[in-house]
From TrEMBL:
Residues of the signal peptide: none
Entry annotated with the keyword Repeat: yes
Keywords: Repeat, TPR repeat
Family membership: Belongs to the TTC38 family.
Protein name as annotated: Tetratricopeptide repeat protein 38
UniProt superkingdom: Eukaryota
Amino acid sequence: MNAASYRDCEAWRAEGLPLSTSSNEACKLYDAVLTQYVKWKTDETVGGFEGSISALKAADPNFVMGHVISTGLDLMGTGISVRLDKRLADDVKQTVELANTQVLSPRERLHVKAMELFSRGNFTKATDIWEDILCEHPTDMLALKFSHDAYFYIGAQNQLRDSVARVLPYWKPHMPLSSYLKGMYSFGLMETRFYDQALKVAMEGLALTPGDSWAVHSVAHVFEMRAEVDKGLKFLESREKDWQVSDILASHNYWHWALYFLEKGEYEAALEIFDSQIFSRCKASGSMLDTVDASSLLYRLEMEGVCVKDRWRELLQITQPHTDDHVTIFNDVHFLMTSLGAKESATSQRLLKGLQELSKEPKENYQHKLAGSVGVSMCEAMVEYDQGNYNQAVELLYPLRYKIVNIGGSDAQRDIFNQLLIHAAMKSENKHHQKLGRCLLLERDAVRPGSPLTNRLMQKALALH
């Protein structure tokens, strides 16, 4: 293995982030795992994530931060549930027990605590603790990345931005991974609709690191939110060689590419990207990000009247095993799109019932609490829409409009629910709903002037009523 360029015990100490292990190898491998996480890119010289994590544990089995990063990444992936996966639950327990038998720094203790809270679904308390770490240690990249992802999962848009803004001045250009903060900050700016600034900061990041796929992704979002479709297409295409090597995020950037085609009404081009990039990568990785993107793209195509029947059945093979997970509402609603699309009603009902049950006694789990206020009704609305009960779908979805942000994801990802509400309102027999549909389209046009998709829907509304 080649971990030469990564930081050893002394290097971490010099940065004011000492790690409680005497193994240089363990320190370097910790850095290797962290670096892959920040770059969204597996490093084959250290055996990718799996290879570097197992080598890390072998180098020092009692290295607490090694356990924190590996278990934390499993949790952040949201693809396995502590409720159902004994190995993951044991990993959390083992990390906590290990920490209790050692002399650790206060920073490391807080990391253990935050990871444990996150594992119990208490995302908001976990982010508070990561912020406590960052207040004392603003260059702790693991605390920054974990909080960034957790804010994303709870739709905390301002925090996504401010968390990076608070620490940015402490990062100096010579520090490893410092340029990647630009992409992270840009994404927070973009989600809070500072589009010009988001674009500027992302381009600064890309000038330093052309392969920063998260900064590329932030720019793709800006063009998506402004409906500057041709600019977006040109941008992604011109930099494809740089970002497609970030294997963990590439599929998501291809998803943005497909959305531009969808916006233009070029369905064949969108399907071509789905088949050649998104679905093939999703099948290979099984990652939740790739899976929700695949579901979302097919659902949007279907709303536009494109037949994607066979693709739903294939995608169901990937989503069905996750029916009982209920790690995030965001994942759940996307799994439901697939089971509805594949006409697998038993799976759809099972997902909905499971969510209803968990919402009754959510304990400290943020997502299960959210199921009661938002998640269950969203799922019910999708089921009603699928059955042609458009009136019911509107009645369920309309009151949730400004709460849907809490399920996490980005504005671009959540836009699917704006579209669903508009389609339901237009198809409803209720005259008031039809007027509501037109109002929502005018609102959409004000937010994204010149959107071809909005114009198509307006034409459709005029033709229908």
